[in-house]
Amino acid sequence: MSGYIISVLISAVCISVIELVIPKGKLKGVISFVVSVVFIGVMVAPIMKTDISGMFDFDFDISDPRSVPTISAVDEEIEKYYENTYKKALFDDNLIAEKVVVETSGNKIEKVDIYLSNLVIDEKSEHINSNVIRTYISSLIGVPYEKVEVYV
Fold first, then answer.
1. What residue ranges do the domains of the chain occupy?
2. Cα–Cα distance between 116 and 150 in angstroms, integer?
3. Which CATH architecture has domain 71-151?
4. What's the pTM?
5. Residues 77-116: tens digit of each pLDDT
Protein backbone atom coordinates (compact mmCIF):
# COMPACT_ATOMS: atom_id res chain seq x y z
CA MET A 1 0.00 0.00 0.00
CA SER A 2 2.84 2.39 0.77
CA GLY A 3 4.31 1.70 -2.69
CA TYR A 4 0.97 2.70 -4.22
CA ILE A 5 0.86 5.97 -2.28
CA ILE A 6 4.46 6.76 -3.18
CA SER A 7 3.83 6.11 -6.89
CA VAL A 8 0.71 8.32 -6.85
CA LEU A 9 2.59 11.13 -5.07
CA ILE A 10 5.58 10.91 -7.42
CA SER A 11 3.22 10.90 -10.40
CA ALA A 12 1.37 13.95 -9.06
CA VAL A 13 4.64 15.84 -8.55
CA CYS A 14 5.82 14.92 -12.06
CA ILE A 15 2.51 16.03 -13.56
CA SER A 16 2.75 19.36 -11.71
CA VAL A 17 6.26 19.95 -13.02
CA ILE A 18 5.25 19.01 -16.56
CA GLU A 19 2.24 21.35 -16.42
CA LEU A 20 4.52 24.21 -15.31
CA VAL A 21 7.12 23.56 -18.00
CA ILE A 22 4.77 23.17 -20.99
CA PRO A 23 4.31 26.45 -22.90
CA LYS A 24 0.78 27.63 -23.59
CA GLY A 25 -0.67 26.64 -26.95
CA LYS A 26 -2.23 23.77 -28.82
CA LEU A 27 0.42 21.30 -27.70
CA LYS A 28 -0.31 21.90 -24.03
CA GLY A 29 -3.78 20.39 -24.29
CA VAL A 30 -2.49 17.26 -25.99
CA ILE A 31 0.34 16.77 -23.52
CA SER A 32 -2.00 17.39 -20.59
CA PHE A 33 -4.38 14.74 -21.90
CA VAL A 34 -1.61 12.16 -22.31
CA VAL A 35 -0.20 12.89 -18.86
CA SER A 36 -3.69 12.62 -17.36
CA VAL A 37 -4.24 9.22 -18.98
CA VAL A 38 -0.92 7.99 -17.59
CA PHE A 39 -1.85 9.31 -14.13
CA ILE A 40 -5.21 7.53 -14.27
CA GLY A 41 -3.34 4.37 -15.25
CA VAL A 42 -1.05 4.74 -12.23
CA MET A 43 -4.02 5.24 -9.92
CA VAL A 44 -6.18 2.42 -11.31
CA ALA A 45 -3.48 -0.24 -11.79
CA PRO A 46 -3.35 -1.43 -8.16
CA ILE A 47 -7.14 -1.47 -7.93
CA MET A 48 -7.36 -3.61 -11.05
CA LYS A 49 -4.34 -5.62 -9.83
CA THR A 50 -2.72 -5.04 -13.18
CA ASP A 51 0.91 -4.53 -13.94
CA ILE A 52 1.29 -1.26 -15.87
CA SER A 53 4.92 -1.89 -16.77
CA GLY A 54 3.85 -3.16 -20.21
CA MET A 55 1.38 -0.35 -20.81
CA PHE A 56 3.74 1.54 -23.09
CA ASP A 57 5.57 -1.36 -24.75
CA PHE A 58 5.83 -0.92 -28.48
CA ASP A 59 6.62 -3.48 -31.15
CA PHE A 60 9.83 -1.75 -32.11
CA ASP A 61 13.18 -1.00 -30.54
CA ILE A 62 13.79 2.76 -30.56
CA SER A 63 17.57 2.17 -30.63
CA ASP A 64 17.23 0.26 -33.91
CA PRO A 65 15.95 2.70 -36.56
CA ARG A 66 15.14 -0.18 -38.93
CA SER A 67 12.42 -1.44 -36.59
CA VAL A 68 10.58 1.88 -36.26
CA PRO A 69 7.53 2.16 -38.57
CA THR A 70 8.31 4.38 -41.55
CA ILE A 71 6.26 6.52 -43.84
CA SER A 72 6.62 3.90 -46.56
CA ALA A 73 5.03 1.31 -44.24
CA VAL A 74 2.12 3.68 -43.70
CA ASP A 75 1.87 4.28 -47.46
CA GLU A 76 1.76 0.52 -48.04
CA GLU A 77 -1.13 0.16 -45.60
CA ILE A 78 -2.99 3.03 -47.28
CA GLU A 79 -2.42 1.41 -50.69
CA LYS A 80 -3.71 -1.96 -49.41
CA TYR A 81 -6.81 -0.24 -48.03
CA TYR A 82 -7.56 1.44 -51.37
CA GLU A 83 -6.87 -1.77 -53.31
CA ASN A 84 -9.32 -3.74 -51.18
CA THR A 85 -11.92 -0.96 -51.30
CA TYR A 86 -11.74 -0.66 -55.08
CA LYS A 87 -11.86 -4.45 -55.55
CA LYS A 88 -15.01 -4.57 -53.45
CA ALA A 89 -16.61 -1.65 -55.33
CA LEU A 90 -15.89 -3.36 -58.64
CA PHE A 91 -17.19 -6.69 -57.35
CA ASP A 92 -20.38 -5.02 -56.12
CA ASP A 93 -20.84 -3.77 -59.70
CA ASN A 94 -20.31 -7.27 -61.15
CA LEU A 95 -16.78 -6.55 -62.34
CA ILE A 96 -14.16 -9.00 -61.11
CA ALA A 97 -10.71 -7.52 -60.72
CA GLU A 98 -7.88 -10.04 -60.75
CA LYS A 99 -5.59 -7.40 -59.38
CA VAL A 100 -5.79 -3.76 -58.31
CA VAL A 101 -2.59 -1.80 -57.82
CA VAL A 102 -2.74 1.62 -56.18
CA GLU A 103 0.21 3.97 -56.05
CA THR A 104 0.07 6.78 -53.49
CA SER A 105 2.25 9.65 -52.49
CA GLY A 106 1.38 10.83 -49.02
CA ASN A 107 -2.40 10.84 -48.87
CA LYS A 108 -2.89 11.37 -52.60
CA ILE A 109 -3.57 8.68 -55.16
CA GLU A 110 -1.12 8.92 -58.03
CA LYS A 111 -2.17 5.92 -60.13
CA VAL A 112 -4.65 3.03 -60.10
CA ASP A 113 -4.04 -0.03 -62.29
CA ILE A 114 -7.02 -2.39 -62.57
CA TYR A 115 -6.75 -5.82 -64.18
CA LEU A 116 -10.23 -7.11 -65.02
CA SER A 117 -10.92 -10.80 -65.51
CA ASN A 118 -14.55 -11.25 -66.44
CA LEU A 119 -15.20 -8.49 -68.91
CA VAL A 120 -17.12 -9.73 -71.91
CA ILE A 121 -17.83 -7.20 -74.63
CA ASP A 122 -20.21 -8.24 -77.34
CA GLU A 123 -18.83 -7.70 -80.84
CA LYS A 124 -22.02 -5.86 -81.75
CA SER A 125 -21.25 -3.21 -79.12
CA GLU A 126 -18.82 -1.15 -81.15
CA HIS A 127 -19.32 1.91 -78.96
CA ILE A 128 -17.88 0.11 -75.92
CA ASN A 129 -14.10 0.23 -75.83
CA SER A 130 -11.39 0.47 -73.20
CA ASN A 131 -11.84 4.26 -72.87
CA VAL A 132 -15.54 3.86 -72.09
CA ILE A 133 -14.75 1.17 -69.52
CA ARG A 134 -12.00 3.33 -68.03
CA THR A 135 -14.37 6.30 -67.76
CA TYR A 136 -17.03 4.14 -66.10
CA ILE A 137 -14.61 2.62 -63.58
CA SER A 138 -13.06 6.01 -62.90
CA SER A 139 -16.45 7.41 -61.93
CA LEU A 140 -17.32 4.24 -59.99
CA ILE A 141 -14.28 4.43 -57.70
CA GLY A 142 -14.10 8.22 -57.61
CA VAL A 143 -10.61 8.63 -59.06
CA PRO A 144 -9.84 11.05 -61.93
CA TYR A 145 -9.75 9.44 -65.38
CA GLU A 146 -6.08 10.37 -65.92
CA LYS A 147 -5.00 8.33 -62.89
CA VAL A 148 -6.84 5.12 -63.84
CA GLU A 149 -5.53 2.41 -66.14
CA VAL A 150 -7.73 -0.57 -66.99
CA TYR A 151 -6.35 -3.78 -68.43
CA VAL A 152 -8.86 -6.17 -69.99
1. 2-57, 71-151
2. 7
3. 2-Layer Sandwich (3.30)
4. 0.50
5. 788 888 888 999 888 888 888 899 998 876 788 899 999 8
